[in-house]
Description:
Layout: H1 2-11, E1 16-20, E2 26-29, E3 32-35, H2 42-50, H3 55-62, E4 67-72, E5 78-86, E6 89-96, H4 104-107, H5 111-117, E7 122-127, H6 134-148, E8 152-157, E9 170-175, H7 183-190, E10 197-200, H8 206-217, E11 221-226, H9 231-240, H10 247-257, E12 258-268, E13 275-283, H11 286-293, H12 300-306, H13 315-324, H14 330-336, H15 340-346
Parallel strand pairs: 7-11, 7-12, 8-9, 8-10, 10-11
Antiparallel strand pairs: 1-2, 1-6, 2-3, 4-5, 5-6, 12-13
Helix pairs in contact: 7-8, 8-10, 10-11, 13-14, 13-15
Amino acid sequence: MITELISYARNHQCSDLHLTVDLPPLFRKNGEIFASDFSFSKENIIDCILSMLDEKQKEKLDRLEDLDFTFALPTGERQRVNVYHQKGELCAAIRILQDTIPTFEQLNLPGIMEQLTNEPRGLILVTGPTGSGKSTTLAAMINQINENKRCHILTIEDPIEYLHRHKKSIVHQREVGCDSTSFSDALRGALREDPDVIMVGEMRDLETISAAVTAAETGHLVLSSLHTIGAAMTIDRIIDAFPPHSQGQIRTQLAGVLKGIITQQLIPLSDGSGRCAAFEILIGTDGVLNLIRDNKAHQINSALQTGAKEGMCTLDYSLAQLVNDGKITIEQALGKANNKQELLQFVKKQL
């Protein structure tokens, strides 16, 4: 049954499948959730969820632990699965993973992001809300390095989403809970494993953030993600994760390693055929790094507005470009804008 549901999701280009007791299977496509015509009993839903688990996972579930893992169909297609309880009943959220890693061209990523992958060392962050494509963008960046550099790439993920083959680089992928106990432990071990590039799936806590910054300081190129919207908020989130007496030090460290922050949001295309990404891009220029060092992150937005020559742009400018190109509607853009007036100034045809 679970194979049938996942196959349906794949055939209809859905991004997610939700299984909930007393509801039919629910699918997400282009950001919207819709009910299916499948008629499933409570027992059917529970059987679908349990069919994806091994005995060890079932034991964890009995202890009311949430599960996060990948599940592969017999044909090899992989899904990221989270199983949890609500109101005493089982639920599952299943993210449909693509079989191939999209290229920069397929994702329409800005050219400056290719330049960032050429950095020999430092910290690059991809941020955005849940479901905004951060993992896909990171995978494309790792693939870009893999195809163009001879180096050692080490990824730390929970769980592994995209599978990378060895190309010009060698790529080792470590899964938290399977190959290591935690992100921070894997990062500390990484420094002894001769990597050139380290990808950390998510900087979730103080230990992981600290270890990632240290790895960037010691000469590695580190890529990671955060659930933040906007460059200034990202910088504040990192600094606020540290106790007050350590915040001056992390500002100095961050100012020494930050190469760029890419914030992205997905917006439905106006013709209903899919979604496209709008970006806010901050580049770690001397001026930007001085603002971080001097605790002036509130001035980052001004730097974004004046940094076009360095490849920077605000989210509002990116949204306006998508409107001007006819890809999204002005209403959709206004719903995502940080500053609606600024957005309207960038749009060619004012409302």
